[in-house]
Amino acid sequence: MSAAEPAPRPEPVGNFAQMFTPKLATVLREGYGAAQLRADAVAGLTVAVVALPLSMAIAIASGMSPAAGLHTAIVGGFLVSALGGSRFQIGGPAGAFIVLVSGTVAQHGVEGLVLATFLSGLMLAALGFMRLGGYIKFIPYPVTVGFTAGIAVIIFASQLRSLLGLTLSGPEPGPLTEKLPALWAAAPTVNAAAVAMAAGTVAVIVGMRRWRPHWPGMLAAVALAGLVAALTGAPVETIGSAFGGVPSSLPAPALPRFEPALALAVLPNAVAFTLLGAIESLLSAVVADGMTGRRHRSNAELVAQGAANVGAALFGGFCVTGTIARTATNVRAGAHGPVAGMLHAAFLLAFVLLAAPLAAFIPLAALAGVLAVVAWNMVEREAAVTLLRANRGDAAVLAVTFLLTIFRDLTEAIVVGFALGGLLFIHRMSQAAAVEPAGVLATEDVPDATEGRDAYAAQSRGGPIVYRVRGALFFGAAASIGAVLDRIGDEAGALALDLTETPFIDSSGAALIEGLARKTARRGASLTLRVRAETARELAAFGLRAPLVRVEIA
């Protein structure tokens, strides 16, 4: 957030227009002048310098051409910023998608990938219009740490061939358990020049991050590697030798080939793109909020992500999502608003139009070095160690998600991790619920001024015995709470339940109370509920009202 920017104000939410108005319109409505444009131009150029090598590296690692990565960053990045619900979000190809994209290309080809991206865009927009953005963020933290670390391992493994300059006898296997033996078998073909290029690239990036943190380390490292390769003629594979270079123009937009059989085949891939894209983009927006004090509009952001994926597919690109590293760079560079992201796309387009032939000299080993650094930075090492030490439940969720990501499937890892996290939460909430005696409910009113007396301690003869329920009374706690209340109901005459410290009662909890009320009624006794006003309304909706129970509002 620039110094000249006004203090953050809460964003109104509620009606359709407020929920889906792009932040670009909000920024322009606040007033936009030359100073704001200068700040956004500097930030946009800074982000473009970071995005340029990353976009090509991610595309190559995903089984696509480097041009496809640039087109995705240009079209998708522009639409994310122009239509999104975050002031600072930067969209483009992301390392987290490498596993899914490369798998889709291997299964269904480039046409299948483009169609899956198009369908994913429609799904993301639908999620936004259905106002589900707020729910997608309810992913347990151990799950996000686990699948991010798993993706990092797979990304690094996917770059081993280029990092070492290996020559394989056949296509490189996708699964890790098949890939590693194939790479080991090709170990005698290690290319020393490629290893040197990769190591030099990593060294330049790490060194500049330490001693010149504001300089574009990734671009400088890749440019230096390209210069060395061009001047020395080093025997390394380059973008030019592998892909014939990068075209100096954008392709004409065209709808992806749609066939019912192909659409049905790529539907699971599209769902996976949608799930991961929604999680990644909203997490990135949350990071930007934390850095700036602003609030993003999650549903508008999903709609923009959907439009960006549709747009990228029309130009032969692939998955677009909000990228945390580039978004954080945008904030640190002093961006004022979404114009910075739009200008970042414009600067990338200028590179394609004016300097694309230079990309042919970039060694693939250098881009592999860039992705090796990206993979290392993706792993949240401190968070993982903390979770593993904190308790066995979180450690199990993290470990299962991590292992399933590596050895099975990313979507399966997220679903299973979410389910385990949900079960862990239910277990913890059920343990927090308890029943405790609270005295006897007075049968007559006690004046407020009376010293040393209150309603529950009155011990008035004939008053109902009171038990207080603490914690949420929901299906996870219903069994344990019900067993206690059944024993109490067998012994007590008149019974009262104090539910003033029960923040939530679901249908299982209501059914439990109903059963207790009918049991006490059969014995000729009564059940009184002491509740807050909002709880009384919830219980009435479940049918718990007089004459079945007597309700007192606390």
Task: Explain what this protein looks like in three dimensions.
Helix content is 63%, strand content 5%. It has helices at residues 16-20, 23-30, 34-61, 66-83, 98-129, 133-136, 141-158, 160-164, 176-185, 192-211, 217-232, 239-243, 260-292, 298-314, 324-332, 339-355, 364-378, 381-390, 392-407, 410-432, 475-491, 507-522, 533-541; strands spanning 91-92, 321-322, 434-440, 465-470, 495-498, 527-531, 550-553. A 5-stranded mixed beta sheet has the order 3-4-5-6-7. Helix 21 links the parallel strand 4 (465-470) and strand 5 (495-498). The chain is elongated. Residues 1-13, 441-446 and 448-462 have low confidence and may be disordered.
Structure in a nutshell:
The chain has 23 helices and 7 strands.
How are the secondary structure elements laid out?
Blueprint (H helix, E strand, L loop, with lengths): L15 H5 L2 H8 L3 H28 L4 H18 L7 E2 L5 H32 L3 H4 L4 H18 L1 H5 L11 H10 L6 H20 L5 H16 L6 H5 L16 H33 L5 H17 L6 E2 L1 H9 L6 H17 L8 H15 L2 H10 L1 H16 L2 H23 L1 E7 L24 E6 L4 H17 L3 E4 L8 H16 L4 E5 L1 H9 L8 E4 L1
Parallel strand pairs: 4-5, 5-6, 6-7
Antiparallel strand pairs: 1-2, 3-4
Helix pairs in contact: 3-4, 3-11, 3-15, 3-16, 3-17, 4-14, 4-16, 5-13, 5-14, 7-17, 7-19, 7-20, 10-11, 10-17, 13-14, 13-15, 18-19, 19-20, 20-21, 21-22
